[in-house]
Design a protein that fits this description.
This is Co-chaperone GroES. The protein has 1 helix and 9 strands. It has about 100 residues and is mainly β.
Length: about 100
């Protein structure tokens, strides 16, 4: 990975979903703009806020997809990340482990 790039593996939340009220939402239903969570796989040498293994929140519309050895990944810039969820943040203070 070069510069400020972050390689992430997306969560596979495709398919039917169920709302908090128990209503089944089909996979074909249109959803408004929604941010997505992914796990960091690799980072470039200039990335300062995330490490491999962290979970990050990003906008699925601002991404570049790449396939490596048959596995699909998303390539992002560090500045395109909206939040980081990592255990190291949780251990350092009395917080939720979410860094915004």
């Amino acid at each position: 990975m070069l510069h400020d790039r972050v390689l992430v593996r997306t969560d596979t939340g495709e398919g039917e979903r169920r709302s908090s009220g128990g209503i089944v939402i089909p996979a074909t239903a249109a959803i408004g703009k929604k941010l997505a969570w992914a796990e960091v796989v690799a980072t470039g040498q200039n990335v300062r806020t995330v490490e491999p293994g962290d979970r990050v929140l990003y906008d699925p519309e601002d991404r570049g997809e790449v396939e490596v050895r048959g596995v699909a990944y998303v390539l992002l810039r560090e500045r395109d990340l909206h939040a980081v969820a990592a255990e190291r943040f949780e251990a350092s203070t009395d917080s939720t482990g979410l860094y915004l």
